[in-house]
C-alpha cells in the first residue's frame, strides 16, 4: 500500500499531505503511469482520516491531470515520472574505440541499400525458408525436450553438447578427414568461430593472407582485429597459385584464410588437384590454414571434393571452420571449429570467457534433427532446388545481361563482371526499378574492383529471377549507350 509510509502531521492540511505524497511517489518512479490507486475508502481507513480529505486530494490531483478516475474501474496515475534535465548524460560517441567504429563502418547491413518490401532481391544468400522441414524440426524439439529438457536448460559445457560433437566428428570422418588428435568446439556459426580464432591466434598488425575477393564478414573481422591483410589474386578456378606462393614467400603470414567450396562471392569450387597444390604451398611455407567449409554440402554438380583438412592426414596445420548456416537454419547459429586438440583446449577457454557456451537447447534439438536422418533427406532435396535455380539464373543472365565474365559453379550465388561500368551505378538505377543486388566491391579488401556484382538466387522464384535479371540487363544497356 503506497500510503503505509505516510505519517500524517498536524501542521499541514491533510488533503495537501496526500497530494504531495502521491506526487513524490510518482517522482521516485514507484507509481508509474497506469498504476491503480487505492480507493478513497481504503485510504481513509488505513490512515485513520476523514474520507472527505482523501476525496478532495484525489479531485485536486485529477484537476491537475496527474490522476484520472474511470467509473467502475477506479483511479489511476495519468502521467509518467518527470524527466529531470540534470539526468546523467554521456556523449557515447566520444567513448567509442576503434573496434566499435570499424565494426560500424564496415557493417554492410547499415551501409548498403536495404531491401524493401515488394523488391526483387538478389542481395541475400540466406537459404529459402520455404524449404525448411518445420514439422521434422518440431518433432526433434519435442523429443529432445521430453528426454532431457531439464539438463539442456541448465548450464552446459563450453566445448558444446557432447552428442553433437560426436556427430560432427563422424560427419568429418565421412568427409575423409582423420580425427585422431583433433577435437571440436561448437560456436555461434562461422562468424564467431573466425572471431575466436583471430582473437586467439593473432595480434594487431600481424599479417593474414586471403583470397581477394573474399567473404565480406571475414574482411570486417580481419580489419576489426587490425590485421595486415595480404590479398591473393584469384583465377576462374580459384586462388592463383603463383600469387599464393609469392605472398607466402614474401610476407610469411601468420595464417591464411581460404574458402575452397562455393567461395563467397565468386561461387568457385576449387578442384581436387588445386586443393592439393594449395595445401603443398602452405605446408612448404609453414603457414597454417583456416579453411571455411560453410557451403560444402551443396556440391551438386560433381563428385565429392575432399576439404583441405582431409589432405593433412595426421598433420595439424589446417583449422576447419564449419557452419550449417547456408544449408540448414542460419537462425539457430550453430557452427564448429575442428582442429588440433591442444588448440581446441585453448579455444574452449576463450569461448567460455566470451559467452560460456552456445545454447544447449539449440544444440540438442539440432543434434536430434540431424541424427533422425532428416538432414540427409533435406540436403538431397535442396541440392536439386538450388541446382535448378542456378541453371535458370545462368540461362537468364545469358539471355539478358551483356556480361564480360560469369563465375560460379553452383551454390547460392553467381559473380558477374560488367566491364566499363561501376556496378554501383547499375545498382542505383536498378533500385529505382525495385531490384537490388550486392555490389562486388565490398568483397575486395580495399574495395578496389568496381565492375562486379553478386547475384544471390537462393530466395528468388524463377519469375522474379526472369523479371529482375531483365531489368538489370536493360539498365546496363541504357548506361552503356549513355557512355558511348
Ligand atoms: C564464406 C562464408 N562463410 C561462412 C558463412 C556463414 O556464416 P555464419 O555461420 O556465421 O552464418 C557465410 C555466410 O554468408 C559465408 O559467406
Low-confidence sequence ranges: none
Count of DSSP helices? 17
Q: What small molecules does the structure contain? A: pyridoxal-5'-phosphate
Helix content: 40-55%
- Arithmetic mean of pLDDT: 94
Strand percent estimate: 5-15%
Structural Rg: 31 Å
Instruction: Record the strand order, biggest sheet.
Output: 5-13-12-11-10-6-7
Sketch the major β-sheet: 7 strands, mixed
Give the overall silhouette.
elongated
The tally of strands reads: 17
Query: Structural class of the secondary elements?
Result: alpha/beta
Cα(first) to Cα(last) distance is 81 Å
Keywords: Aminotransferase, DNA-binding, Pyridoxal phosphate, Transcription, Transcription regulation, Transferase
Protein name: 2-aminoadipate transaminase
InterPro entries: Aminotransferase_I/II_large, HTH_trans_reg/aminotransferase, PyrdxlP-dep_Trfase, PyrdxlP-dep_Trfase_major, PyrdxlP-dep_Trfase_small, Tscrpt_reg_HTH_GntR, WH-like_DNA-bd_sf, WH_DNA-bd_sf
GO molecular function: 2-aminoadipate transaminase activity
Amino acid at each position: 500500500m503506497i500510503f503505509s509510509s505516510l505519517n500524517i502531521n498536524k501542521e499541514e492540511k491533510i488533503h495537501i499531505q496526500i497530494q504531495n505524497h502521491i506526487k513524490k511517489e510518482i517522482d521516485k518512479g514507484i507509481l508509474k503511469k497506469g498504476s491503480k490507486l487505492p480507493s478513497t475508502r481504503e485510504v481513509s481507513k488505513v490512515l485513520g482520516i476523514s474520507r472527505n480529505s482523501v476525496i478532495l486530494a484525489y479531485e485536486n490531483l485529477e484537476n491537475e491531470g496527474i490522476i484520472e478516475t474511470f467509473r467502475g474501474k477506479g483511479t489511476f496515475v495519468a502521467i509518467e515520472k518527470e524527466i529531470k534535465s540534470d539526468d546523467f548524460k554521456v556523449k557515447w560517441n566520444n567513448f567509442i574505440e576503434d573496434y566499435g567504429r570499424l565494426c560500424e563502418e564496415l557493417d554492410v547491413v547499415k551501409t548498403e541499400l536495404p531491401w524493401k518490401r515488394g523488391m526483387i532481391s538478389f542481395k541475400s544468400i540466406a537459404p529459402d525458408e520455404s524449404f525448411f522441414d518445420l514439422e521434422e524440426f518440431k518433432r526433434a524439439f519435442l523429443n529432445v525436450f521430453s528426454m532431457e529438457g531439464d539438463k539442456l536448460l541448465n548450464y552446459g559445457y563450453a566445448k558444446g553438447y557432447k552428442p553433437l560433437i560426436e556427430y560432427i566428428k563422424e560427419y568429418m570422418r565421412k568427409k575423409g578427414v582423420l580425427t585422431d588428435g583433433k577435437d571440436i568446439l561448437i560456436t555461434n556459426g562461422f562468424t564467431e568461430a573466425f572471431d575466436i580464432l583471430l582473437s586467439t591466434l593473432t595480434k594487431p598488425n600481424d599479417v593474414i593472407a586471403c583470397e581477394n575477393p573474399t567473404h565480406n564478414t571475414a574482411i570486417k573481422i580481419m580489419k576489426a582485429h587490425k590485421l595486415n591483410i595480404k590479398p591473393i589474386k584469384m583465377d576462374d578456378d580459384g586462388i592463383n597459385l603463383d600469387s599464393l606462393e609469392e605472398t607466402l614467400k614474401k610476407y610469411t603470414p601468420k595464417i591464411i584464410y581460404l574458402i575452397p567450396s562455393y567461395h563467397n562471392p565468386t561461387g568457385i569450387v576449387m578442384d581436387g588437384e588445386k586443393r592439393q597444390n594449395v595445401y603443398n604451398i602452405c605446408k612448404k611455407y609453414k603457414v597454417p590454414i583456416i579453411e571455411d567449409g560453410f557451403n560444402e554440402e551443396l556440391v551438386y554438380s560433381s563428385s565429392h571434393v575432399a576439404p583441405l583438412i582431409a589432405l593433412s592426414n595426421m598433420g595439424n596445420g589446417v583449422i576447419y571452420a564449419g557452419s550449417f548456416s547456408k544449408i540448414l537454419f542460419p537462425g539457430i547459429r550453430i557452427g564448429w571449429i575442428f582442429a588440433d586438440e591442444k588448440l581446441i583446449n585453448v579455444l574452449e577457454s576463450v569461448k567460455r570467457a566470451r559467452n560460456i557456451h552456445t545454447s544447449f537447447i539449440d544444440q540438442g534439438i539440432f543434434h536430434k534433427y540431424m541424427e533422425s536422418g532428416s538432414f540427409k533427406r533435406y540436403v538431397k532435396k535442396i541440392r536439386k532446388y538450388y541446382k535448378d535455380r542456378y541453371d535458370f539464373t545462368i540461362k537468364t543472365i545469358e539471355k539478358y545481361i551483356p556480361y564480360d565474365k560469369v563465375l560460379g559453379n553452383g551454390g547460392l550465388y553467381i559473380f558477374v563482371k560488367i566491364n566499363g561500368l561501376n556496378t554501383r551505378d547499375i545498382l542505383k538505377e536498378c533500385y529505382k526499378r525495385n531490384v537490388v543486388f550486392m555490389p562486388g566491391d565490398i568483397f575486395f579488401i580495399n574495395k578496389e574492383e568496381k565492375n562486379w556484382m553478386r547475384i544471390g538466387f537462393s530466395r528468388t522464384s524463377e519469375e522474379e529471377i526472369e523479371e529482375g535479371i531483365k531489368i538489370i540487363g536493360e539498365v546496363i544497356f541504357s548506361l552503356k549507350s549513355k557512355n558511348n
